[in-house]
Amino acid sequence: MKYLEKYLSENNIDAIITTGPPHSLHLIGLKLKKKLNIKWIADFRDPWTDIDYFHQLPLTKKAIKKHHQLEQQVLKNADATLVVGETMKENYKKFSKNIHVVTNGYDSSENEKNNIVLDDKFSITHIGLMNSDRNPIILWKALAELSEENNAFKNDLEIKLIGKLSDDVIADLEKYQFKNVQKTNYVPHKEVQKYQRNSQVLLLAVNKVPSAKGIITGKIFEYLQAKRPILAIGPEDGDLAEILKNTNSGIIVDFDDKEAIKKSVLNLYKSYKENRLEVSSKNIEQYHRKELTKQLSVILKQVVNS
Predict the structure, then answer these.
(1) 202 - beta bridge partners?
(2) Which of the residues 19, 154, 264, 291 could staple to 43 if both were Cys, CB 3.0 to 4.6 A apart?
């Protein structure tokens, strides 16, 4: 606060943007707004009290109440609020009069069209952390049943999990004894892009938590860039489902609908066997970071000139 107050007083700054999490940064913006009356945009890349793990934090009732109060103070005092999806916007509308959806996005890779050789196996790849809330138990059950019912499927299936796995994910994989499982703890980002582009199917598992409807994991936008079929598990009426629908980039199945997952996987597998497993995605350019920056520049100018 002291440093920024001095800096803003001595320099000709039009506006400040605070971005969270950590949402404590918004409290700095709130204090600067009250003290200097500077134009201020509060950017929420994740919700505050609706974030997927909030219900797991060891907080007292008093502390929970305080979190809600601080969140509302930020929303009420910011000149504009940025959120990543429509559910967040709807939840915040009662506290903020000037709220905009600016999603996360992807950057172009110079080599994105080069060296694309699809995996020989029917690979289902998940990139990123897979914690307990994100463990797609119903998918493991479905894949195990399909492997039992279809020996060719069993031999062709390859599960690739790139990123840290929780103990229960590892336990489930061992329980079902899948023939081909590749577990890789960490790879550089360029390697991640290669895994995404070369995979037959990209798996997206939404956290099974109270706020699941509003969760849009950042990896969805890189998945879109990879242009491989996406199989998502999560709310069929959520923000992620809307993105998949609008971009024609994949399918989403509800957390507990095993039969629908089996049917979806079998359809993907059939296309794989017929050598025609591809996706005709559309409208993904809107998620390029250049387009998102353009949106942000318009909002910033409106705030400064208001």
Answers:
(1) 125, 230
(2) 19
Q: What is the pLDDT of residues 163-184, one digit of tens each?
A: 999 999 999 999 999 999 999 9
pTM of the model: 0.89
Low-confidence ranges of the chain (pLDDT < 70): 109-115
- Sign of torsion, CA 236 261 255 52? negative
φ, ψ dihedrals at 107, nearest 5°: -110, 150
- The total of other beta-carbon atoms located within 10 Å of residue 76's CB is 13
Neighbours of 157 (CB within 10 A): 22
The full DSSP string for 224-286 is HHHT--EEEES-TTSHHHHHHHHHT-EEEE-TT-HHHHHHHHHHHHHHHHTT-------S-GG
Count CA atoms within 13 Å of residue 269 on its CB side.
19
d(CA 254, CA 243): 16
- Type of residue found at 195: Y
Residue tagged 């970071």 (tokens): 289
| Helices and strands counted in the chain (H then E) | 12, 10
Q: How far is CA 147 from CA 143, 266, 275, in A?
A: 6, 11, 20
Q: How does pLDDT run across 101-158, given as a tens digit for each residue?
A: 999 999 876 545 556 799 999 999 999 999 999 999 999 999 999 999 999 999 999 9
Rounded-to-integer distance, Cα 97 and Cα 78, Å: 9
Q: Exposure pattern of 93-118 as b/e (b: 16+ CB <10 Å)?
A: eebbeebbebbbbbeebeebeeeeee
CA angle 96, 240, 281 (to 5 degrees): 125
